[in-house]
User: What shape does this take?
Amino acid sequence: MDKSEILKKYLLHKFFDIMGIMIVALDSKGKVLFINKAGSSILGYKEIDIAGKDWFSDFLPEGSRKEVRAVFNDLMKKERKPREYFENPVLTKDGEEKIISWHNTIIHDDKGNIVGTLSAGEDITEKKIQEDAIRRSSEEWERTFNSIKDLIFIQDKDSNIVRANKAFLDMLKVKQEDIVGRKCYELL
Assistant: This one.
């Protein structure tokens, strides 16, 4: 390998290392060919301790290994079209599960044969936790709002009904979608 090839390889490695997302390359058997610093940091291992290991058995939680490996194997056999975007958990060195959003592509050799995958993943664990908390809070608010026996509706500054509770809808014998956007004084 000449100096320019070594420099290109070095620069490519550095480029992947400065990215704030996980970059993982797998061979056709699912062994890790490459992982960048962000990836090794998310997993809690040194890069050297990840390279060559089986991605599915070593870095995925047991509950998702079979399904994700099956998708990967189908990709390698060209039996499945690659999914550009995918979310699945990974398992850290400490046993913690983190949710990663992946963007994937297939790697081909000079002859067009599939030889592996290249994936960029972002840790969205905190985002998922926040989304779940918002969803639960919204469901709790909805249950509380609808359990109130008094007739309640919410209107905007222009007197358009935005939302009504179950007691209000039952009293008027209407559905939510029938009154949203209507003026409150039209109904009362």
